[in-house]
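Annex B. Sample input.
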Amino acid sequence: MNRSFLKKYSAVFLFFSFLLTLSFQSFALSSDELLQASVYTNSSSGYKAYLLDESDLLSSSEETQVKEAMIPLTKYGNIAFVSGEGGYSAASTAKDLLEDSFPNGSASLLLIDMYNREIRIQSSGTLYKTINNHVADSITDNIYRYASNGDFGKTATMAFRQMNAKMEGRFVETPMRWISNLFLAAALALLLNFLWLITGKRNETAAAGAILAAMAPDFIIAQRRKDLISQNKLYVPRSSGSSGGSSGGGGGFSGGGFSGGGGHSSGGGGHRF
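Annex B, continued. Sample output.
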């Protein structure tokens, strides 16, 4: 009896301990801490740059470089660099942190989540119009190798420089996207060639069948023969009558559809490292 009691409540204790651990992870990065980590204020726009390095990834010189890379972006909105251990999802951590810290206006946040080993860029407002999901994915595709090598200073600096280049309308190379598109185009070309070969074979088979079908009646008619064996006459008296008919009609139905839409206040993209 005591053993079953202990097993039952041990399982309950472990379950609540697990939930408590997740709760601590979820609040490991808070908006209050981020808003206290301001390192620059743009006197013209009023927007600020924030640097919260909870995982201590940057040296003092690297922090200066990251700050300098963030400053041009404060022309368009609040900019933040954050490192730390997020919750179960880097995407949800970046989204919640950005929207809790900057619920109104334009903002962009670069998160290096050491728990999930993922880089995320999350943006809202004016910045999100340019630094959208596709651009965020492209930029993180370009920089994740620096994070894989442990060079987090260069990871952040290059991310903010490329974000600023996009905001200024300059071209940002995306070599990984090009390589992916190249492989996709090659696979599509192979598929089209395969379908073309199958279609060609079917057309050849259909043409051969049509030729044989056209020749068959000639062979049959050539062997037919008619012989007149007898002839009879039949008298049929005249009669009158009428016939009628009926007509009918049918109907049909038509249907419609529906449309709907939705949106979100921020968006972003990322890449694991």
